[in-house]
Prior knowledge:
Distance between the termini: 40 Å
Strand order of the largest sheet: 3-2-1-4-5-6-7
Bound molecules: nicotinamide-adenine-dinucleotide
Helix content: 40-55%
Order of helices and strands: EHEHEHEHEHHEHHE
CATH class: Alpha Beta
CATH superfamily: NAD(P)-binding Rossmann-like Domain
Largest sheet: 7 strands, parallel
Number of domains: 1
Structural class: alpha/beta
Amino acid sequence: MKTTDPSGIDFRKKFELTDKVIVISGSCGLIGRAFCEAAAQFGAHVVCADIPAANPESMAAALSEKHGRAMLGFSLNVAVKSEVEALKAKVLETFGRIDGLVCGHQNKSHLKFEPFEQVTEENWDTVVEINLRGTFLLCQVIGSYMAENGKGSIVNIPSTYSVVAPNQNLYKGTSLGCPAAYSASKGAIDALSRYLASYWASRNVRVNMITPHGVWNNHEDKFEKNFAQFSPMQRLSFNHEVAPALIYLLSDASSYVTGDNMLVEGGWTVW
Ligand SMILES: NC(=O)c1ccc[n+]([C@@H]2O[C@H](COP(=O)([O-])OP(=O)(O)OC[C@H]3O[C@@H](n4cnc5c(N)ncnc54)[C@H](O)[C@@H]3O)[C@@H](O)[C@H]2O)c1
């Protein structure tokens, strides 16, 4: 609306996702679960997309029951183009539209830390294939639909470790670590997101990122203590602290925001 007078603007309404269809990959994961619940609370029809073992169908059924609104669960491997195309077809058949895409999947093998000197090509490829190719395919297949349609919001998830290097002291005395393939794949997701923000800006498709950091998941005590030492806020975060950023980026509240990487990292990268 072309105005200098904000008094007629309904600012609460800007955050609503009422009847918007939002596809969320990695929906059954730690952060994906919070994304789905938050989007549902703001009125969306949520499409829960995850691997078959995660059972996104049952998650969608539970969300539907709780919120009294149609949701969809869809099992797929995001790194396989035909499966991503099948996802798009099913969502359009069910709802007739797609308003938002959230690429929240990740490959878990990075949680089993391997020293860089010992990383095999196979492990490298698996991480890059799922994290990067999966995000590329979802953006290509679903983002292209949005561009054709002249509207949409995409939110990709890189990592603090595409912004800064992991502080190796964080992992001292723990079984955890962050491998190079994870950082590299996330850095590429960051670059891809900026590319697409520019590429699709004139088609009214916004492409942004959320960078979470250290989301609490029953971590070992030693890791939690180490983390507190290096974090300005002296604690891990919680998945429900990441999800509000998603509502902002998916909704009209961020209508003039594209190419942004919203850091939800407790100030980790400020010092
Ligand atoms: N947890 C953190 O502290 C943290 C920090 C920074 C960034 N991130 C990023 O946030 C996102 C969510 O992280 P999380 O902690 O919820 O991860 P998670 O491991 O709990 O969830 C990831 C989900 O992705 C799904 N997935 C894996 N491979 C897939 C495939 N091939 N196709 C479809 N789905 C697949 C998994 O089944 C799982 O449900 C990831 O991109 C992660 O890299 C997380």
